[in-house]
Amino acid sequence: MSKEIQRTETNAELVSAMERLGERARAAASGLVLLSTEDKNRGLTACAEALISHTADILEANEKDMEAAKAKNMPSGLQDRLKLTEDRIQGMAKGLTDLVKLPDPIGEVLSERTLENGLQITKRRVPIGVIGIIYEARPNVTSDAFGICFKSGNVAILRGGSDAIHSNVAIMDAIRAGLKAASLPEDAALLVEDSSRESAAILMRMNKYVDCLIPRGSAGLIRRVVQESTVPVIETGAGNCHIYVDESANIPMAVDIIRNAKTQRIGVCNAAESLVVHRKALKALLPALKEALAPWNVEMRADADALAVLPSMTPATEEDWGTEYLDYILSIRTVDSVDEAIAHINRYHTQHSDAIVTESEENAKRFFSQVDSACLYWNASTRFTDGGEFGLGAEIGISTQKLHARGPMGLEELTSYHYEIRGNGQVRP
Predict the structure, then answer these.
(1) CA torsion, points 12, 15, 21, 27, in degrees to nearest 10?
(2) Is 58:51 a contact under the CB 8 Å cutoff?
(3) How distant is the alpha carbon of residue 425 from its chain centre?
(4) Which residues does 139 contact at the CB level (< 8 Å), separation at least 6?
(5) What are phi and psi of 140, to 5 degrees?
(6) What's the whole-model pTM score?
(7) I need a labelling partner for 281 at 20 to 30 A (CA). Which of 112, 115, 227, 324 fits?
(8) Where does residue 118 rank: exposed (0-12), middle (13-18), buried (19+ CB within 10 A)?
(9) Phi/psi zone of residue 122: left (φ > 0), alpha (ψ -120 to 50 degrees), beta?
C-alpha cells in the first residue's frame, strides 16, 4: 500500500496532504471510467479474496480498536458495530462478490429520441466521479463503500473514525493488495488515516476534487456534514424507527417482529427504537412482548396508559419519543387510532424505516400513503432496510433525503447521467 494520509504536525501540512490525496483521486477517476465490466468484476473478486487472505491481520487490528473501545466504556451497541469476526469478514467479502453478479449500470441508455431537426439525443448513465465517505465506528463500511463505488465506476475517498482506525487501515491494505494483484488502479480506494476533526472539515471543502460526500454515522456527524460541507451531500439519516401495532394486529406476529427489529442487532440504524400501540391491543401485546424481550433485558419505557397495563415498565419522558437508543431500550406510546399513530411517527421519526402490524389492508394503505419515510413495512421487521436484503449488493448507506436517492443506495444511486447529442451539421437558427 502506498503511503496514505497520516496525522500531521500542522493544519497547513494536513491541507497539503489532503490536496495530494484529492489529486490522486481525480487522476484515478479518469482511468476508472475506461474499465470494462469484466475489469471491475475481476477487481472485486480479487479484493474479496484478499480480505479472506488478510483475515488474521484484520482481526488483530480490530482487537486493538476493541480494546480501546472497552477502555473508554463505549456503549455496547457501538461496540457491536465496531467488532469484526471471521464471519463478518466473510460477509464483507461476500458483499464484494455479490456485486460481481449485479448488472453494471455504467453506459446504460436511459432514453433515446430524435428531434424534428434530426438531432439524436441519448441519455446515458455515467459515474459520479470521486465520492467521499465520512463514517464512524463501522469498519465494514470500508469494504462496502469501496465495492459499490468501484462497480459503479467511482473513486472512493474513505475517512473513518478514530475508533476504527486500525481496522480500517488493515481492510484498506487488503483491498489495495487485491487491486494490485488484478493489475487495476490501487488509487480507486483511498483512505484518510488522519481521523481528526480537521481532516473531515478539509474533506468537506474539497470541491475541486470531490464530487459528492456521503456521511454515515451518528445524528451529530450527519448534521455537521450537512451544515458545513461545500461539497454536495447525500444525507444518510439516523434511525429512530417505529413499529405501530394496530388494533387488528396478529399479536404473536407483532411480538416476533418487534423482538427481531429490537434485538437482532441493536447498533444499527434499522433497529426499532419506538413502539406505538393501539389502546385495544395493549393488554394482549405487552405481557407477551415483555416475556419475549426478557432474554435481552430490554428496558421498556412506556407512557401512562401502557404502564397501567404493565406497571413493571419504566415511565417514559418526552425525550424518549425522539431518541435513537442503539441499545436494549424501547419506548412505548399508546394511541387511539391509526391516524394518531401516523401523526406521532411523523413528528418523531427520522424518515428512515417505519412499520405497521395490522390485518387491515385499509389501515396499511393509509400508513403507506401518509408516513413520510424512505422505507415502509407492513407485517415485517424494519431490519430488512439494507442494500443486500433488497438485492442491491453492498450498500453505501440509507438515504433519508428526497433528492437524487432515497432508501438503500446501491449501484444506480451512485451514478449520474449525461446527454449525448448526435447531428449532421445542424446549427440553431
Answers:
(1) -110
(2) yes
(3) 47
(4) 62, 65, 82, 84, 160, 164, 167, 168, 171
(5) -65, -20
(6) 0.81
(7) 324
(8) exposed
(9) beta
- Alpha helical stretches, state H, 229-360: 251-263, 282-293, 304-309, 338-348
Q: Show contacts of 403-406: CB within 8 Å, 24+ apart.
A: 404/234, 405/234, 406/374
Closest CA relative to residue 245, chosen from 410, 87, 358: 358
- The side-by-side arrangement of strands in the sheet containing 189-191 is 189-191, 155-159, 130-135, 212-216
Using the structure block, give the residue that is written with the C-alpha cell 458545513: 228
CB 125 within 8 A of CB 415: yes
Q: Which residues contact 369 (CB under 8 A, 6 or more apart)?
A: none
Other beta carbons within 10 Å of 59? 17
Which residue reads 417514559 in cell numbers?
316
Query: Distance between CA 111 and CA 109 in Å, rounded?
Result: 6
What is the SS3 assignment for 233?
strand
pLDDT tens for each residue of 316-375: 999 999 999 989 999 999 999 999 999 999 999 989 999 999 999 999 999 999 999 999
Instruction: Tell me how many helices (H) and strands (E) the chain has.
Output: 14, 16
Q: Please, which residues bridge with residue 111 across strands?
A: 123
CA angle 384, 386, 390 (to 5 degrees): 80
Locate the DSSP E strands across 35-168. Answer: 109-114, 120-127, 130-135, 155-159
Give the model confidence (pLDDT) of 248-298 as tens digits. Answer: 999 999 999 999 999 999 888 899 999 999 999 999 999 999 999 999 999
